[in-house]
UniProtKB/TrEMBL annotation:
<keyword id="KW-0378">Hydrolase</keyword>
<feature type="region of interest" description="Disordered">
    <location>
        <begin position="85"/>
        <end position="160"/>
    </location>
</feature>
<keyword id="KW-0540">Nuclease</keyword>
<feature type="compositionally biased region" description="Basic and acidic residues">
    <location>
        <begin position="110"/>
        <end position="127"/>
    </location>
</feature>
<dbReference type="InterPro" id="IPR044925">
    <property type="entry name" value="His-Me_finger_sf"/>
</dbReference>
<protein>
    <submittedName>
        <fullName>Endonuclease I</fullName>
    </submittedName>
</protein>
<dbReference type="Pfam" id="PF04231">
    <property type="entry name" value="Endonuclease_1"/>
</dbReference>
<dbReference type="GO" id="GO:0016787">
    <property type="term" value="F:hydrolase activity"/>
</dbReference>
<keyword id="KW-0255">Endonuclease</keyword>
<dbReference type="InterPro" id="IPR007346">
    <property type="entry name" value="Endonuclease-I"/>
</dbReference>
<feature type="signal peptide">
    <location>
        <begin position="1"/>
        <end position="20"/>
    </location>
</feature>
<dbReference type="GO" id="GO:0004519">
    <property type="term" value="F:endonuclease activity"/>
</dbReference>
<keyword id="KW-0732">Signal</keyword>
């Protein structure tokens, strides 16, 4: 009896190493072997089933977990600027961080009462001023350097994020285009090759986003937040973080 108990205690104390894709076992079974539009359709069904939508207020707390600075648990990492800033500085004032919609609400439109408006897979902390500088610009290369956001560039109609998150941004956008297909009176979000400033459910530029995906492969920060969103909040995953090879199948 004591031996059994000791064995159980030893088991309980053994740290469980979590491989990157531990939680997705079986998750993508319905998509295996498919390509093109059929793959996109299967992925849409998978990532739209059994999900939980957050309130916009709850997004504040969730971002403090999903985007925590791995080297300082009191801070979050701001997506474009790369700055580590106190979790407590969430708000709307100068020097605060707020909730950046990587897929802008006007490229729908949708708002913060709608599921895409609170979808953690494309919401990231960013400095209030830099967030408003990005505004609803499409993604493209080029422009002038952005103050206090090293590596970012912007011009009148586009935004180029720093190199370390170019792929992260692309994969967030790819997720949105597959997740939202015009159901429940929501817009069918899709990629295009234009810089439109919104007014349509389209976001560009597709060839640039594909190149960014290739150039900046999936990293540990993305994998970690994908797991947290799946396990703790929305119970759905970003397929393009788990299977980067599907990007070309669906969008190439
Ligand atoms: Ca990256
Ligand atoms: Ca779509």
């Amino acid at each position: 009896m004591l031996t059994v108990l000791a064995g159980l205690l030893a088991l309980a104390a053994t740290p469980v190493a979590a491989p990157a894709a531990a939680s997705d076992a079986g998750y993508y079974d319905a998509a295996r072997g498919l390509s093109g539009a059929r793959l996109k359709g299967a992925l849409h069904d998978i990532i739209s089933t059994g999900t939980t939508a957050l309130s916009y207020r709850k997004v504040w707390d969730a971002l403090k977990v999903t985007d925590e600075d791995p080297s300082n648990p009191a801070n979050v990492i701001l997506v474009y600027s790369g700055t580590s800033r106190s979790k407590a500085r969430n708000g709307g004032g100068r020097g605060d961080w707020n909730r950046e919609h990587v897929w802008p609400q006007s490229h729908g439109p949708f708002d913060t009462r709608d599921t895409p408006g609170t979808d953690l897979h494309h919401l990231r902390p960013e400095d209030v001023t830099i967030n408003s500088g990005r505004g609803n610009k499409d993604f493209d290369n080029g422009g002038a350097p952005v103050a206090r956001a090293p590596g970012n560039r912007s011009d009148a109609d586009s935004w180029e994020p720093r190199d370390a998150v170019k792929g992260d941004v692309a994969r967030m956008v790819f997720y949105m285009a597959v997740r939202y297909e015009g159901e429940s009176r929501l817009p069918d979000l899709e990629l295009d090759d234009a810089t439109t400033h919104g007014g349509t459910p389209l976001l560009g530029r597709r060839p640039v986003l594909l190149a960014w995906h290739d150039r900046d492969p999936v990293d540990a920060f993305e994998r970690r937040r994908n797991e947290i969103i799946f396990e703790r909040y929305q119970h759905n995953r970003n397929p393009f973080i788990d299977h980067p090879e599907w990007v070309d199948e669906v969008f190439g």
